[in-house]
Design brief:
The protein is globular, with a radius of gyration of 21 Å. By secondary structure, the chain is an alpha+beta fold. It has helices spanning about 10-20, 55-60, 80-85, 95, 130-135, 170-180, 210-225, 235-240, 255-260, 290-300, and strands at about 1-5, 25-30, 35-40, 45-50, 65, 105-110, 115-120, 145-150, 155, 160-165, 190, 200-210, 230, 245-250, 265-270, 275-280. The chain folds into two domains: about 1-155 and about 290-300, Uridine Diphospho-n-acetylenolpyruvylglucosamine Reductase, domain 3; about 160-280, no CATH class. It has ten helices and 16 strands. Strands 13-10-12-11-15-16-14 form a seven-stranded antiparallel beta sheet. The protein has a five-stranded antiparallel beta sheet with strand order 3-4-8-6-7.
Length: about 300
Amino acid sequence: MKLKPASIAELASLLAADRTRMEKVTSFDLSAIDRLVEHKAEDMTATVGAGMNLADLQKQLALNGQWLPIDPPKPESLSIGALLATNVSGPRRFGYGTVRDYVIGLQVVLADGRLIHSGGKVVKNVAGYDLMKLFIGSRGSLGIIVEVTFKVLPLPETEQFVEAKCASLEDAEKPIDALLNSDLAPIVLDLHNVSSANRRLTLVVGFAGTRDDVAWQAGKAAELGFTDQSSLDYGKTFFTQEAAFQQVSVLPSKTVEVIRTLNNAPFVARAGNGIIYHSGPVIPNHQDRPARLAERLKNEFDPKHILPDLHS
């Protein structure tokens, strides 16, 4: 069964009615729940319906010089609900963290049609159980996120990206280690091989903040070998051209070791986080959540298994 409710109330009603039919929900479309409910620029918070796409939210926030510091691929086609359900991120995750770090309140419709709230609409909120981290990344298997309140940040005055070409993976490890052990505070630290026909390795670092601070950091990065101007266009290229790609998460210290097994396949690696996107062979991911815990949570929140499964 595919759900396309016109409102939160209708979604709750549809799920409550389905309890008697026991028909499994295969997908849901929340595009009608797409408005910016409230943006309190003075409090740096924004409440938004899950059907709104990320690009439109960023445009609305930018009118007041603010943004949600989450930058996954294709934000124009990524709804807020999908962003939260998959916990997807982008290159700036190294400096800003994940979407979980910015959620202060959630509304979720459970499998039986109940509407629950977690958190609130103020940054300092300790009311109730913190269920937010449970639903974020659950892919709609425990409940359907319908509304979220974010804390947002001021847009940085400027950003600058610089890069270093690396002849080998061994050559890439040295500047990565030097950067991580320096006083610099980059927002991006990526290693990729998608910008040239010969798959040459490129290490990209990015800085954000005031113009003076960014200029100082870029100068220090140049001393470590990051002398060429760069951008984040390699990510757009990879996620546009590689229709089918794998994702694996490892310890940041194991990033280069895993890349060695890709046999020069196209990849973009978040070198500071240990997340690797690649078009090479499947790599066993030992960081998956324990199956027994996932099953217990599913049985607790959706005992009749009406909602999609976690890995469906």
